[in-house]
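Please go through the sequence line and token line underneath and see whether the fold suits the sequence. See right below:
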Amino acid sequence: MLKLLRFLRPYTGLVLLVLTLTSFQAISQLYLPTLMADIVDIGIVQGDVSYILRTGGWMLSIALVGSACMILAGFFSSKAGVGFGRDIRGSIFRRVERFSLQEFDTVGTASLITRTTNDVTQIQQVTVVILRMMVMAPIMAVGGVVMAVSKDARLALVFVVSLPLLSAFILFVAAKGIPLFHSMQKKLDRLNKVLRERLSGIRVVRAFNRSEYEQARYEKANRDMTETAIKVNRIMASAFPVLMLMMNLTAVALVWFGAVRIDSGAMQVGDLMAFIQYAMQIMFSLLIAAMMIVMIPRGSASAKRVNEVLEMRPTIDDPESPRETGRRSGFVEFDNVTFAYPGAEEPAVRNVTFKAAPGEITAIVGGTGSGKTTLVNLIPRFYDVDSGRVLVDGVDVRELTQEDLRRRIGYVPQQAVLFSGSVKDNLRYGKRDANAEELRRALSIAQADEFVDAMSDGLETQISQAGANVSGGQKQRLSIARALVRRPEIYIFDDSFSALDFKTDAKLRATLRKELSEATVLIVAQRVATIMRADRIVVLEEGVVRGIGTHAELMEACEVYRQIVLSQLSMEEIA
């Protein structure tokens, strides 16, 4: 929690103001019982009406000032707390933006969402409580003891019994509750993960009639979290009645022994009334402390989880002294590249070496799980190689800044992703200043201009979240057009034509060859028809290159490629 206090620096003025206001509020509450005792012992007992009115006026003024301080402290503490939470969320978002795919795999998307929302909210709430109470509670506790002892030191001996018992009970509650708070946040992660998988995979769930299974899976995670929450709430629910019982027993003891003191003439009635109020203030301070002890562990657990994200160093970062290629070309080279995913027993790709030159189409083909997508993901540096080098324009990608590297690449992922907003906004995602002519050109090349023009608002048509209001083929063509708008030197199409019919696929490939004649094009494909006319075909099997060459060359020399072709095409089509 302390590590996050750096985010409070912009609100130092507000924090100091809140602390000052709460101090005035606490002091005013300490002064009121003494004035009330004077009214009873002097004004009422002696019948001095003017003293009652004068002192009562002072009490009213002090009460109004205390109320004003309380309202202002609440306002400014809320303002500081909300700003504090906003800055933490912004910092988490900026940090996550720098994460490589490895960090996302390690933490998990569901956990990152929980940490950005629920955990930050917990920290924010704890911050507001601390700002309001961390000065007020000690002033009221210490001041109450001092004022009570000044009224009657012997009667104050009641606190010697009650306060240790109260403190011990609060510590017991904290010891029981803290581990459960940590556990509850982890179980909330699990619940979010199950819910997110259910919602994002709703089509698969219904297609396979697995609704009951998913419902049972969700109920198990929900019940697990609920049971933990019930345990926590039982502890907390039992705490406050016990604390109130102790407070009331303390008040009974004070009245009992105070009556004896009054009867002996050692104490006045007004002093006993003030003494009881000071006792309640002391007990109230301990109640506040109990509430803080309950909230701080949960906030601390959330702070620890947030700090894990903020302190996580991305495995992929920019070099301290980045290099410049000095020219725009697009030459890509894999030099004996080996890569394994974290925790994997075997490398996904091993000893891969090939070149992709500008003006050429390089295709990568292979069976499922052969490492095709892994290979092209190494070019924009989504992952770093374990050994070997990936070079762009003769420079190792690890020696370039990520911004410089990715500015050279137009990437179309295996699963087409669109964002909520207009068609124009999605096309301009990689080039914000693209004009209408550039957008039209990209749509025409991607064979997407006809269906976009047929939409009700054309380029201004709104795309719903994840592109739910367009078909799979339309989504792929818009993703391709988005990459084309950027006009990069390297194009990566990761199985980007799988949702297209053969006619559209053929027209798109023909247009791409003509329009991208000066760029380096890498195509990952399952269809042999898509890559037969490529200048260079790289055949992968279990992460190893089995052959490199043209279609004709590989049909003669590469058995793996020949089997892939024969499984898809007839002899007439091959000829």
